[in-house]
Amino acid sequence: MSIPTLTISSKNYSSWSLRGWLMMRMADVEFEEIAVDLGDASARAEILLLSPSILVPCLTYEGSKIWDTLAIGEFLNELRPEKNLLPKDIMQRAHCRAICGEIHSGFNALRSAMPMNLKGNFPKFKLWSKAQQDTDRICAIWKECLNMYGGPYLFGELTLADAMYAPVCTRFHTYSVEIDLVANSYCKTILKWPLLQEWTKSALTEPDELEELDLEF
User: Fold this and answer.
1) Which of 79-83, 156-160, 183-187, 202-206 is least confident?
2) Looking at the chain, which runs of residues are DSSP E strands?
3) What is the pLDDT of residues 72-88, one digit of tens each?
4) Are 107 and 151 in contact (CB under 8 A)?
5) What is the 3-state secondary structure (H, E, C) of 29-42?
6) C-alpha distances out from residue 179 to 144, 167, 189, 214, Å
């Protein structure tokens, strides 16, 4: 049986690649990374949110391709149910799916205003109003989950929800976004997550750059 492959893009800029990669590692599935060259115009457009190409992440497993991040997560949960990528309780599981769906399809203002950039540091960044609304909603989601399930992760233990929101934590760090103490504590927990630190260490060595995302705001 061939080893599964996960097609990803830049580790510095591609938030969707990060989500898929975290899910694979959480599921403890052996896989090979295949990186899409940033010289590929479609890959650049996708990272810059100018194209719906959905090149990454794409999981190839036993000859079948799964290219949507939530679909990858659901597949991995069924493949490795013992890893509890979704909560065991039916209502918690529904709640987890709901907030994963919200980050999957929403918060476009935040995405546009604060692209993921692990090498970046923009301490004077100012949020525009719609991006602030997205930020406030995300912090409200985090606080509700942490209060309901006791932390330190959104559903107590690590789940797909933490993988889905991890890139947001990196964005808040990159752009020095001011958030309340509860949300900030969660961000610090995620930024210390060994898997995220492993990804970040690799991202910082990447030679590729997107000048469009490296401008001082």
Assistant:
1) 202-206
2) 5-8, 32-35, 58-61, 64-66
3) 999 999 999 999 999 99
4) no
5) CCCEEEECCCCCHH
6) 15, 15, 14, 23
